[in-house]
């Protein structure tokens, strides 16, 4: 996968004419301004955070466009910014393939999931999955799957943070990197604890605005240098790559190597397109708006922003190839991830580099905060309030308190995990998160929303089955062992040939959900299905906004 | 099911109201309109995406044919994926505003009216 931010050396600014130390302080300075501004906003937002609905769902008071911007802030991780631009610069066309899967996936969310979920649930994915089932077992399963996806994704982001720090701040010492990872984690805990969903959402909105504005300016700049002619930009990228540079324009440079790598690409493509609408932190964002119609507007805004952003990365990727050159990028300490920062340095000097670096940091911060609040909400609302206390939590404050404690625990665990995994190749964790979301979550969501007969047994089979198959296949894949780039290169238990399990695990989960339903003689709950269907399609009785204006 | 996944408590919303509404002709219309749009369109964009992935994966020669300057078939097909995503988004919004929202609103008002 693309988050190869892990094996990094020192600062990228070995390029002449730059002074590493002053760059570092410039980068830190710009980032500090971002942190200060967002902290002020988070503290102001916290003054109105009282109820569970405020804490988990920001009082359902964000507008569709605001939430759409926040969704793009949540979704566009450092991997998709630095990783995709770098992959296009070095591998050419194959880097572009990622962004298409990431974008098309939003149509699944728009057409099949977002509005129905908003109408039916309250705070979490498990609200919808357990609606018409025996509640405790299904809620537990859905919550475990939520926690698993969030944790894999969170660990990947935190481990990648170490590499990014090395790249952007020129800190090569592992101990110092650990300190910076701890600072990132501590900031995230503060955002989530103090600001709740409202504060977190504002952090994502600001970050998305900076990211999209920054990449837009760079895109115009690069295109302007080529007279706004995409063809001559591509030609220049080909020339800069030297002999065989033509390959950059054609598919296959990265995935065309062998039969297994081609199958692996199909498998990845499936997980990307079906995983997005099953990512719990994406689903939870739909509860922050007052109505299903606003949820629809959120997705529409997100699709436009994410689509435009990926078009920018296409230009930036080839631009970095043309202006910096693939060899220089591969030899820079951050390897492919250094493409966008190097391009910023090339065209805009240290100030633009500082801005882009700060945006990359802000990106990690916003994404991990979104994941943490999702995981803590699922534990507090699903496991604590509804499974352990059986829905009898008199004092909603108690539930929010549990959510806050969980957020701290998750924050601390992810700091420690991020430090431990720093320098390890944990890129497979992102693939794993998407594969679990596509295998365990999406089939169960779709069956639950659209298939009348679906029952508790079916839901448990598709969630636990999807989770188990995906994890087992990853453990026995070349991403974990038996490959130079694996996490444990010395070990060889890679009995499954693909790094991405989606091609097998997604159909298996759909099949398990079906078989579990038809083989168990348990009847579906017709009355609850009637209620769920009417609620999901019309919004009758849906959660209202609790904001006071 | 506890009352936790929806507004608690729901005075007066008995199972009968939901079942009656679900079996009403208006609701059948709403369900039909939703499903006749989202199911076929989902199938179309998923197939179109898969075709694109397979072409990029196995038809390198075809995707590498240059059309204008350095712009080849692969790039055009990739950009068409963006275009189709934007187009489907716009079409769905128009369809939902015109054909889904008014019916949904009518049914919602009736159900919530009965609850009060």
Unreliable spans of chain A: 1-18
In total, the number of domains of chain A comes to 1
Q: What would you call the structural class of chain A? A: mainly alpha
Q: Which architecture of chain A per CATH?
A: Up-down Bundle
Described by the principal axes of the CA atoms, the overall outline of chain B is elongated
Radius of gyration of chain B: 23 Å
CATH superfamily of chain A: Sodium/glucose cotransporter
What class would the helix/strand composition of chain B place it in? mainly alpha
Strand portion of chain B, in percent?
Answer: under 5%
One letter per element, helices H and strands E, the order of chain A comes to HHHHHHHHHHHHHHHHHHH
CATH class of chain A: Mainly Alpha
Largest beta sheet: strand ordering of chain B: 1-2
Q: What is the fold named in CATH at topology level of chain A?
A: Sodium/glucose cotransporter
Helix amount of chain A: over 70%
Q: Specify the overall morphology of chain A.
A: globular
- Could you estimate the helical fraction of the residues of chain B in percent? over 70%
Estimate what percentage of residues of chain A fall within beta strands.
Answer: under 5%
**Biggest interface found:** A-B, 72 and 62 residues
Structure description:
The complex is a heterodimer of chains A (549) and B (116). Chain A is mainly α. Chain A has one domain (29-422): Sodium/glucose cotransporter (Up-down Bundle). Chain A has helices at 20-46, 52-57, 64-75, 78-91, 93-120, 125-129, 135-169, 174-225, 230-240, 259-275, 280-285, 292-323, 326-331, 339-388, 396-421, 428-450, 456-475, 502-519, 526-538. The longest helix of chain A is centred in the middle third of the chain and has 52 residues, at 174-225. The radius of gyration of chain A is 23 Å and the shape is globular. The model of chain A is unreliable at 1-18 (pLDDT under 50). Chain B is mainly alpha-helical and 116 residues long. Chain B has one domain (15-115). Chain B is built from 4 helices and 2 strands; from the N terminus they run αααββα. Chain B has a two-stranded antiparallel ribbon. In chain B, strand 1 (66-68) and strand 2 (71-72) form a beta hairpin. The longest helix of chain B has 43 residues, at 73-115. Chain B is elongated, with a radius of gyration of 23 Å. Chains A and B meet through helix 5, helix 9, helix 10, helix 12 and helix 14 of A and helix 1, helix 2, strand 2 and helix 4 of B.
């Amino acid at each position: 996968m693309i988050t190869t931010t892990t094996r990094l050396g020192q600062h990228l600014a070995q390029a002449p004419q730059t002074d590493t130390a002053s760059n570092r302080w410039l980068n830190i300075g710009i980032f500090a301004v971002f942190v200060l501004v967002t902290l002020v906003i988070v503290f102001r937002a916290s003054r109105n955070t009282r109820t569970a609905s405020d804490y988990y769902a920001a009082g359902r008071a964000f507008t569709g466009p605001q939430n759409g911007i926040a969704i793009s802030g949540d979704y566009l991780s450092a991997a998709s910014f630095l990783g995709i631009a770098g992959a296009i610069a070095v591998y050419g066309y194959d880097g572009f393939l990622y962004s298409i899967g990431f974008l098309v996936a939003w149509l699944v969310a728009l057409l099949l999931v977002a509005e129905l979920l908003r109408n039916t649930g309250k705070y979490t994915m498990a609200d919808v999955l357990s609606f018409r089932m025996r509640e405790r077992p299904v809620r537990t399963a859905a919550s475990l799957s939520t926690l698993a996806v969030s944790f894999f994704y969170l660990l990947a982001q935190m481990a990648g943070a170490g590499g990014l720090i090395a790249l952007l701040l020129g800190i090569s010492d592992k101990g110092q990197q650990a300190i910076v990872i701890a600072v990132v984690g501590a900031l995230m805990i503060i955002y989530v604890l103090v600001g709740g969903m409202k504060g977190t959402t504002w952090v994502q909105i600001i970050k998305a605005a900076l990211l999209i504005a920054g990449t837009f300016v760079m895109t115009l700049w690069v295109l302007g240098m080529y007279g706004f002619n995409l063809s001559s930009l591509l030609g220049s990228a080909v020339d800069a790559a030297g002999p065989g540079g033509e390959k950059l324009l054609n598919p296959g440079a990265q995935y065309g190597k062998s039969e297994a790598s081609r199958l692996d690409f199909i498998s990845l493509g499936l997980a990307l397109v079906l995983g997005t609408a099953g990512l719990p932190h994406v689903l939870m964002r739909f509860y922050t708006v007052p109505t299903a119609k606003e949820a629809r507007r959120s997705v529409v805004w997100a699709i436009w922003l994410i689509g435009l952003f990926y078009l920018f990365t296409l230009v930036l990727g080839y631009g970095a190839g043309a202006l910096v050159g693939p060899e220089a990028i591969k030899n820079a300490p951050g390897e492919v991830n250094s493409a966008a920062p190097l391009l910023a340095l090339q065209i805009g000097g240290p100030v633009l580099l500082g801005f882009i670096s700060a945006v990359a940091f802000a990106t990690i911060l916003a994404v991990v905060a979104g994941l943490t609040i999702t995981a803590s909400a699922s534990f507090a609302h699903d496991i604590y309030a509804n499974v352990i206390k059986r829905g009898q939590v008199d004092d909603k404050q108690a539930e929010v308190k549990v959510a806050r404690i969980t957020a701290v625990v998750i924050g601390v665990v992810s700091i420690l995990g991020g430090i431990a995994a720093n320098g390890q190749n944990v890129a497979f964790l992102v693939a794993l998160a998407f594969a679990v979301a596509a295998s365990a979550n999406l089939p169960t969501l779709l069956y639950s929303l659209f298939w009348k007969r679906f029952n508790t047994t079916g839901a448990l089979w598709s969630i636990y089955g999807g989770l188990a198959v995906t994890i087992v296949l990853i453990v026995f894949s070349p991403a974990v062992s038996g490959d130079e780039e694996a996490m444990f290169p010395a070990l060889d238990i890679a009995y499954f040939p693909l790094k991405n399990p989606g091609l097998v695990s997604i159909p298996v989960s759909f099949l398990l959900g079906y078989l579990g339903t038809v083989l168990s003689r348990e009847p579906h709950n017709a009355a609850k299905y009637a209620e769920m269907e009417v609620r999901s399609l019309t919004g009758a009785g849906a959660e209202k906004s609790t904001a006071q204006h | 099911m506890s009352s936790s996944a929806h507004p608690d408590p729901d005075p007066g919303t008995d199972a009968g109201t939901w079942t009656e509404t679900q079996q009403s002709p208006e609701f059948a219309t709403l369900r039909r309109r939703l499903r006749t749009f989202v199911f076929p369109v989902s199938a179309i964009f998923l197939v179109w995406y898969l075709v694109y992935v397979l072409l990029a994966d196995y038809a390198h020669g075809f995707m590498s044919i240059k059309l204008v300057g350095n712009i080849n078939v692969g790039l055009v097909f990739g950009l068409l994926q963006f275009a189709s995503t934007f187009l489907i988004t716009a079409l769905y919004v128009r369809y939902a505003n015109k054909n889904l929202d008014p019916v949904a609103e009518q049914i919602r008002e009736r159900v919530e009216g009965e609850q009060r």
